[in-house]
Amino acid sequence: MCKQEKKKYRAGILGATGTVGQKFIVMMEDHPWFEVTCVAASPRSAGKSYAESVAGRWMQETPVPDPVRNLSVMEVEKDRQAIAEGVDFVFSALSLDKARVREIEEQYAEAGVPVVSNNSAHRWTDDVPILMPEINPHHLELIHIQRKKRGWKRGCIVVKPNCSIQSYVPVLDAWKRFEPKNVIVSTYQAISGAGKTFETWPEMEDNVIPFIGGEEKKSEDEPLRVWGTIRDGKIEPARLPVISATCIRVPVTDGHMVSANVSLGKKAGRQELIDAVRNYRSPLAERKLPSAPDPFMKYFDEEDRPQTRLDRDFENGMGITVGRLREDTVLDWRFVALSHNTLRGAAGGSVLTAELLADRGLLD
Ligand SMILES: NC(=O)c1ccc[n+]([C@@H]2O[C@H](COP(=O)([O-])OP(=O)(O)OC[C@H]3O[C@@H](n4cnc5c(N)ncnc54)[C@H](OP(=O)(O)O)[C@@H]3O)[C@@H](O)[C@H]2O)c1
Q1: Which CATH superfamily is domain 9-162+347-359 in?
Q2: pLDDT digits (tens, 9 = 90+) for 15-57
Q3: By the 8 A CB rule, do 277 and 297 touch?
Q4: Known catalytic residue: 163?
Q5: Which residues lie across from 83 on neighbouring strands?
Q6: What's the pLDDT tens digit per position in 133-146?
Q7: Is pLDDT at 152 greater than 70 in this prediction?
Q8: Which atom of ligand 1 is nearest to the CA of 119?
């Protein structure tokens, strides 16, 4: 059964027992606006208490928070109606085949539940916004179109883009007036991005794997949708910059680093580019959303920063760190950047998106 509380928005988590689901649980612990009232997962976990269902696979540094320990895990598909009645919105952190996730998320929206999804299933659905809250909050306009078109009164679907793009997209956005044209990016991605730890993936110790299935296409295409324009009720992806990505798994627990080389349509000086990162003002800045980092980005003058272990938790894992801006020998400029993959890149990005929905009255 869902726990009933009225004071805060009631949040459900679909896929609450997984890597991202657990992060949601931790992030919701002291959230000023949201409270977890429903946890749901597969039939394997259903019926157990949340604490029992994650016993032996709890990957967080803090213990399972008291308010959710004894919540009974519900079954995502079978208990949909009961879950819909017990929440104001859900986070989706399901790991299932895409067609099934699409269907499940649509069924929840149909049942009147706003869905904020981490899954890639709906990232290319015409009327579904793919949101980086600081960068394209105006795409929320699509929710009204989505609701009208599908006959959903209160339900809707909003998705978060892939974790790999979270650091270089903000930097390129800060440089928009210099017109980034071509970008070559290499990502160095943490093992938690695959839902793993060194215990569950010992082959990653002392190893680098130069392949992450499907990741390069997402890293190249999804930014263009984030920078897209809404036309005729759907997002028309931007055409520039052209991005070429190589995605590599490296032996770190959390934190995706990128190295990027960029050509610009308009000339810019080094200091101008650094200032553009340091002075980046997101349209969200005035709203003071609880999980929004302030500042959003930090540029380091030190030559050996950002570093994964030192800097991934900048602004509670929600901020982006940038450094090593220097002239490129082939394109114009090169830099490195870092983002936390399970916070900014997964649960945290979705929590911030839900806060934006709440701020816009879209959860009411
Ligand atoms: N890990 C990351 O850093 C990251 C970053 C960005 C996006 N994502 C995306 O977020 C999603 C979740 O990733 P994850 O790493 O958290 O996956 P995960 O650890 O494998 O967790 C998957 C969750 O889905 C549930 N599930 C599996 N089969 C189900 C079924 N038949 N019916 C209902 N629930 C079912 C599992 O429940 P049981 O425990 O009961 O099996 C579990 O709660 C994926 O789409 C992933 O691509 C992950």
Answers
A1: NAD(P)-binding Rossmann-like Domain (3.40.50.720)
A2: 999 989 999 999 999 999 999 999 999 999 999 999 999 999 9
A3: yes
A4: yes
A5: none
A6: 999 999 999 999 99
A7: yes
A8: 45
Q: Do domains 9-162+347-359 and 164-340 have the same CATH topology?
A: no
Q: How far apart are CA 9 and CA 32, in angstroms?
A: 10
Q: Is the bond preceding 137 in cis, omega lying within 30 degrees of 0?
A: no
Whether 17 is in the pocket of ligand 1, judged by its Cβ within 6 Å, is: yes
Closest-lying ligand 1 atom to the alpha carbon of residue 73: 40
Determine the distance separating the centroid of ligand 1 and the alpha carbon of 16, expressed in angstroms. Answer: 8
Burial 333-345 (b: 16+ CB within 10 A, else e): bbbbbbbbbbbbb
- The pLDDT value recorded for residue 56 is 93
Nearest to 74 by CA among 109, 56, 107, 50: 50
Per-residue pLDDT reduced to its tens digit, 318-336: 999 999 999 999 999 999 9
Query: Within the chain, where are the H helices?
Result: 19-28, 50-53, 66-69, 80-86, 98-110, 141-150, 168-174, 215-226, 270-278, 308-311, 348-359
Please provide residue 285's backbone torsions phi and psi, each rounded to the nearest 5 degrees. -50, -40
Residues in the chain: 364
Instruction: Report the nearest-CA residue for atom 6 of ligand 1.
Output: 346
Structure tokens at 118: 């981490």
Its pTM stands at 0.96
In degrees, rounded to 5, the angle at the alpha carbon of residue 325 between the alpha carbons of residues 322 and 328 is 140
CATH class given for the domain over 164-340? alpha beta
